[in-house]
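Researcher: Structure for this, please.
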Amino acid sequence: MLSEKAIKQVDEIIARYPAKRSAVMPALYIAQMEFGWLTPEAIEAVSEATGVPKATVKGVATFYAMYKHKPIGRHLIQLCTNVSCMIFGAERLVDIIKNKYGLEAGGTTADGRFSLVIMECIGACGTAPAMLVDTDFHENLTEENIVKILENYK
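Model: Predicted structure, token format:
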């Protein structure tokens, strides 16, 4: 069940669109922020709040990589390894994260601090390699600064 605050946010979003179906993506984001990930109950709650069939909501939720379907760490690292980032050392940065934190792509650290997702592209080719940590964008990553950046996330 969504909180009253979340339901109010979803209602405000629905009011901005001519069709309730258009509000599904932002409503899923609100539910994910509230639950931490999209539980089956969160999908059901979005369906109820938007009036969109549960199968449609689940279809949207499973199509996009930004929606999480299992618990994640307190901080989500999304590291790009596409061509520009790869050329500038992103694969080495993945190895550093694995070695420093014992973190495999798609996994979560034992202490629940970090989850790591390898992204196809985050649109930062001119400042590669780049990553998102939660909603914070970091660019021009190096072997030296990536650990310093991550140490700021407790």
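Researcher: Any notable elements?
Model: The first strand starts at residue 75 and ends at 80. The helical segments are 4-16, 24-35, 40-50, 54-63, 83-87, 90-101, 145-150.
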